[in-house]
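Progress report, Aim 2. The chain analyzed during this reporting quarter is listed below.
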Amino acid sequence: MIWKPKPLPFSDEQKDYYEKACTALDKLRMRDLLTDLVNIHSPTGAEAEASYFLKKYLEEAGFRSTFQQTGPESGNAWGSIGEPTGPSLMLYAPIDTHLEADPDYDLPYTGEFLRADMLPEAVVDGDLVVGLGAANPKCMLACLIEAAHAVCEAGVPLKGQLIAGTAGGGMPVDMSQRFHAGRSSGVVQMLTSGVWPDFALIVKPWWVVYAEEPGIAWFKVTVRGDLGYAGIPRGVPNFRSSIVPAADVIKRIEAFLPEYTKRNTAGTVEPHGAISCVRAGWPDKPAFPSAATEIYLDMRINPRTTPAQVRAQFAEFMNSLAEECPDLDCSWSMVGSVPGGKTDVDNFIVQSALRAWEFVEGAPHGEPPRMAGQTDGAIIRRLGIPTARIGYPWPSPEIPEEYMTGGLAGMGAAWMPDMMKTARAVVYVIIDTLMRERVEVGL
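Predicted structure tokens for the chain:
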């Protein structure tokens, strides 16, 4: 891939409106929007209140806005300005957060206590905003909305249509108690409800442009033994533990995952994997060893590889494990999958994002580092919408160290000057894409 954008200079009119829109960018307004979003709790599958708030915000900013109820507690929102006869561009970020902010549900799995960056209560200290999802995903959404707001406020004469939207169900989770929300469930509903742009631009961590993102494959491995009783002496004939052999299986999976990553690394995707959950028995019945121990893992999928191909690779590993350990009673299944997605680097939207990045940074972009972070961008691309991902500086040296450890390293702490930098790049992409005729952007 060539990561050097093709030159496409702005006209004098584009330059003028770019400056006007950047002047209209308001850091305090963006911070206030982010604060409001953090204060509205929106765990996966329960985003309706936050999405409806955003619908009203877009309406007051001058957009034609819509709220879409997608479940008893979930919902999407979007707004549009401009003319649908020209190119259409969707600015997108999800709105759901990865934690429930409920000590009974989250502890002890998040740590000993819920920190400030794990609670839906925004703490503002100048340019720093701390709270659940403050950086990912809510400051990403606030940045995109502020860029769209500034373009609207500056009166940019768009030849195409600008759509600013968000959806629930974006986290790589499966919330069974909320109609299995997650794994991009919301954005699929939004796009197939008439919101179908020519191009999409998403924001995620890292101040860099990406044209592809990995998918996910979830596996469950079950190690079986016998139900036991702690009062029976060890070494009783015919008793088999499920837990002790599972420990060995875990070590073997851990050895397999780096080899999987090496085998499937290509382009800008380095698909890692991790064991995320181990379950066995009843916490309230420790006297009775479990007859089954379940191991759950997430393996990221390079967009050049299908979920079926990843399943076949895992099958090879499990077959070799069975041959090496003939006494092991073990079964497995794939329990979730989302394919990766990619957009040609030569596509207009990726080229525009690269031009925007270089204009704001004042330096060549170069090839981005490989990554494994999954977003809704993968499924948006798979649905056939060319998509570019542009980031924000991360990790920021301005974020206190206490928020950069655990809690997914900074997901709950946002630094507004970083987002203003990204907002200027987003404004550039809007001007570059929507102040042109369809033929000029390859449509």
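The mean pLDDT is 96. Residues 279 and 314 are 20 Å apart (CA to CA). These observations will guide the mutagenesis work planned for the next reporting period.
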